[in-house]
Amino acid sequence: MEVDEKKSVWRLTGSSTATTMSQYAHVPKSELDEAQLRQLEEHEISQGPLSVLQQAVRNHAQVLISLRNDKKLLARVKAFDRHSNMVLENVKEMWTEIPKGKNKKPVNKDRFISKMFLRGDSVILVLRNQA
C-alpha cells in the first residue's frame, strides 16, 4: 500500500494475495475497487460475527435466534445478508405468555412455521445449536 503524498490518496499495490485484509481496514471503502470490496466483504462474513450464519447455511445447522419481541426462533438458515435479514425454514417460534389475574403462572407457547423471512432489525442474538 502506498500513500501519494501530493494527493494524499491511498493506492493499493501488488497482487490481491499479497494484500492482507488488515490493509483494507484502514482504507475508505469508497477508494477500493469492486474486486477489493468483494474480497473485503467475503473476509468480514467468513471471520466476523456473520460467520455464525455462514456456517449454519453451509452445514444446514440449526440456530437459536433471540428477537426484540421477546420471542425465540429455532430454525435452519437458508440465506442471509449483511443486515441479518434471513430466510429460515423449519422454524419453531417460542414465547411465554403471562395470564392476567392473580396466582396465574406463565405459560410457554410455541408454533411451527415451515418457511419465514426474518427482517434483520428485529434480531438481537444468534447462537449456534451445539446439539
Automatic annotation (TrEMBL):
Subcellular localization(s) per the UniProt record: Cytoplasm, Cytosol; Nucleus
Span of domain Sm: 50-131
Entry keyword annotation includes Membrane: no
GO cellular component, one term: cytosol
Molecular function per GO: RNA binding
Entry keyword Cytoplasm: yes
Top-level taxon of the source organism: Eukaryota
GO biological process: mRNA splicing, via spliceosome
Keywords: Cytoplasm, mRNA processing, mRNA splicing, Nucleus, Ribonucleoprotein
Signal peptide (UniProt feature, chain positions): none
SMART domains cross-referenced by the UniProt entry: Sm
Membership in a protein family: Belongs to the snRNP core protein family.
Function: Plays a role in pre-mRNA splicing as a core component of the spliceosomal U1, U2, U4 and U5 small nuclear ribonucleoproteins (snRNPs), the building blocks of the spliceosome.
Identification of the protein by name: Small nuclear ribonucleoprotein Sm D2
